[in-house]
Amino acid sequence: MSYDVLVEEKPEYLRVEVSGTRVCGEELSSAICVWEKLGHLCREKALSKVLVVVNLTGRLPTMSAYGLAESPGSFGWERSFKAAIVDVNESSRESNNFTVTVAKNRGYNVEIFESEKTAREWLLGGK
Fold first, then answer.
1. 7-60 pLDDT, tens digit each
2. Tens of pLDDT along 62-101?
3. Predicted TM-score (pTM) above 0.70
4. Are 5 and 17 in contact (CB under 8 A)?
5. How buried is 55 (Cβ within 10 angstroms: 0-12 exposed, 13-18 middle, 19+ buried)?
6. Fold topology of 3-123
7. How far are the Cα atoms of 15, 34, 47 from residue 125, in angstroms, in the given order?
8. Is 4 left (phi over 0), alpha (psi -120 to 50) or beta?
9. What is the strand order of the sheet 109-113 is part of?
10. Domain residues of the chain, as ranges?
């Protein structure tokens, strides 16, 4: 995986920064690796909320976006988890919005945002 993943444990959630470069042909496997790690950390820390700041170059291809959201349970992501995603790369926002839509249609609690403040407010229920 060519991504750097920085995890910070907060009292009510995990704050995660994912940065790096998407490698053509490895986008889906790299994304699954990140979400698998986050699912494991949620269970380990007994936290169900994750704020993910995505700062990756390049775009997630449509089929990879669909593959990521098609069955998150297969790589350990649970429907009881709640994920707020902040995509700082405008060129990938459309494919990430598609991923979120597919995941939500499958019963997962995930949303995408342009600012960390708004994402945190949604994640924590207006706190």
1. 999 999 999 999 998 888 898 899 989 999 999 999 999 999 999 999 998 888
2. 888 888 888 888 888 899 999 999 988 877 888 888 999 9
3. yes
4. yes
5. middle
6. Transcription Regulator spoIIAA (3.30.750)
7. 16, 25, 15
8. beta
9. 3-9, 14-21, 49-57, 82-87, 109-113
10. 3-123
